[in-house]
Amino acid sequence: MLTLLLLPVLTALAAAPVPPTLEQAILAELNVVRADPRRYAAALRGYRRYFKGRIVYTPTRPGGIRTAEGVKAVDEAIAFLERQPVTPPLSAAPLLARAAGVHVAEQGPRGDTGHRSRDGADPRDRMQRLGGGNYVAETITYGPDTAAEVVRQLIVDDAVPTRGHRRTVFAAEMRFAGAQCGPHKVYGTMCVVEYGRTETGRY
Fold first, then answer.
1. How far apart, in whole angstroms, are the C-alpha atoms of residue 140 and residue 193?
2. Is residue 13 scored above 70 in pLDDT?
3. Please, which contacts does 84-89 make with residues 24 or more away whose CB atoms are closer than 8 Å?
4. pTM for this model (two decimals)
5. Shortest CA distance to 189 belongs to which of 119, 140, 137?
6. Can you give the pLDDT at residue 15?
C-alpha cells in the first residue's frame, strides 16, 4: 500500500521541469527583447519610475543602486527601442559559451573588469585559442545576478558612451550566442555573453 501511495509522488517529481540556468535564462531574455523591442520599451518606462535622482530603488534592490546617468540613459534606450526593428533570435553555441567561461574564470577571482585578459587577449583571441574564428562580439555585466537585470543593464548601457553593449544585443548579423556567469571578487557576479555570426565565430 505504501508503494502505491509513493508512486504518484515520484511520478510528479520526475515530471517536474528543470529550471533554466542563469545562462539559459539570459539567452531567452535576449531573444524576447530582440523579438519585440517596443514591448521592452514599455517595460523600461515602468523601470524609470523607480529612479530618485541617479539612484534606482527597485522592488528587488530596495537598498538602491547608484547609476552614472540616471534616467538619461533609460530615456535614450526607450527611444532606441521604439525605432529598433525585430531581430532574428539567437541560437545557443557551446564554443561561444566556453570562450565566455574563460573570461569569467580569469576575471572573477581577481576582481578585474573589461574585455581584455591580463595577457592582452581580446574576445577574438580567446575564441581563436579555442579553435574558433575571430568574428565575435562580447558583452559583460558586473553585479546583476538575474537574467532580467543582466539584459536590462546591457540595453540601458549606463556610463558606456558608445552604447556598444546595446548595439551588440540588437546586431542582426549575430545569430548565435553563448553565456557564462560566475562569482566576481568585487561585484559579486559577472556575466559574459559572446555573440557570433556562426556558432564557431567564423565569418
1. 6
2. no
3. 84/37, 84/38, 84/170, 85/37, 86/34, 86/35, 86/36, 86/37, 87/34, 87/35, 87/37, 87/170, 87/171, 87/172, 88/34, 88/172, 88/175, 89/31, 89/34, 89/35, 89/175
4. 0.91
5. 140
6. 64
